[in-house]
Each structure stands twice: as C-alpha cells, then as structure tokens.
TrEMBL record:
GO cellular component: ribosome
Record's compositionally biased regions (Low complexity): 143-163
Family label: Belongs to the bacterial ribosomal protein bL17 family.
InterPro entries per record: Ribosomal_bL17 (IPR000456), Ribosomal_bL17_CS (IPR047859), Ribosomal_bL17_sf (IPR036373)
Domain of life: Bacteria
Originating species: Micromonospora qiuiae
Ligase listed as a keyword: no
Gene for this chain: rplQ
Segments of skewed composition (Basic and acidic residues): 172-186
HAMAP family the record matches: Ribosomal_bL17
Protein name: Large ribosomal subunit protein bL17
Length: 186
C-alpha cells in the first residue's frame, strides 16, 4: 500500500484513504473497469499494479499480502487465477486511465481506469517472421517427403465383373500387363 501523501488525502484521514483505495481496487478487479475521478484513478493505479505484480508471484505470502488490502476472497481468487496469468509476459503497465468529461453535478474531472487486455493476436514482428519461416520450412519438408501409395480398392463382390476401360481392357488385365513390364525391366 502506498504511503499517504502530504496534503489533501482524498477528503479524509490516511486510514480513510487506504480504505477508499482498497474498495476501488476491489471494484477494479471485480469489474475490469471503473469510472471515478481523475485524482482517485491516479492514486489507485500504483496500488493496483503492485497487487497484480504480487498476484503474478502466486505464492502464499503474496496471497496474504493481497488479502490485507482486498478483503473479498472471491476477488482475490479471481486476481490470482484469472487476472494475473493474463499478464505473465508483461512487466508492468497493467492499467490504463482514460479521461472522460466533467461530472454533471460538480464538474469534477472524471476518468475510467481499466485493466489492459493482453491481445493474443499482436505478436512482435520478429516472432511473426520466425513463425512464417518455420511454416515455410515445414511445407518444404512435407513436399519432399515421398507420398505413401494407397492400395487400389478391391471390389466387395469377387464374382462381379471387373471394370472395363474405354479401350476394352479390364482392370485385372491392366494390372497383369503392368506386372509383366516390371518383371521384364528387372
């Protein structure tokens, strides 16, 4: 938990500020995004990022540290099992603050703070090129591999007539002539 700053503390004592930030963090992890004032969003961001970093560790001590701030066990479970694994390859910057217009009643500047979604599609350019190269190499290997010969289908009824080609040969006669030419070559 960040230490309270000197000066105004979001309209209350340091204890009230800690509780307010804990409630905001709980709501953020529960809903994925919340709308609040810009000041509260800026104060919440470091706390939320610290909690996600602790959740990425996943050990018991980290879980207990997070439970001192976020009191809802269901939210802590979701943080450790659903939210933290999304950011396994990310070193920071788990949240985003988007400024919205002023609030209607008192014209306070409002903002939306949300968890940044990890996109599975967006890969670094080097990874895309490497993946394309591997796919091209695999295609070459498959093209060079000898194709397996499949045996000709046998008619279900042995007494049935063999199919006749346009030249009048039966399939059996063609096979016999092919075998004879192969034996002649050998």
């Amino acid at each position: 938990m960040p230490t309270p700053t000197k000066g105004p503390r979001l309209g209350g004592s340091p204890a009230h500020e800690r509780l307010m930030l804990a409630n905001l963090a709980t709501s953020l992890f529960q809903h994925g995004r919340i709308k609040t004032t810009e000041t509260k969003a800026r104060r919440l961001r470091p706390l939320a990022e610290q909690l996600i970093t602790k959740a990425k560790r996943g050990d018991l001590a980290s879980r207990r540290r997070v439970l001192t701030v976020v009191r809802d066990k269901d939210v802590v479970y979701a943080l450790f099992d659903q939210i933290a694994p999304r950011y396994a390859n990310r070193n920071g910057g788990y949240t985003r603050i988007v400024k919205t217009g002023p609030r209607k009643g008192d014209a306070a500047p409002m903002a939306i703070i949300e968890l940044v979604e990890e996109l599975q599609v967006a890969e670094p350019t080097a990874n895309r090129k490497a993946t394309a190269r591997k796919a091209a190499q695999q295609d070459k290997v498959e093209a060079l591999a000898p194709a397996e010969e499949t045996p000709a289908p046998q008619p279900a009824d042995q007494d049935a007539e063999a199919p006749v080609s346009a030249s009048g040969d039966t399939a059996a006669a063609r096979e016999d002539s092919d075998l004879a030419t192969e034996e002649g070559k050998a």
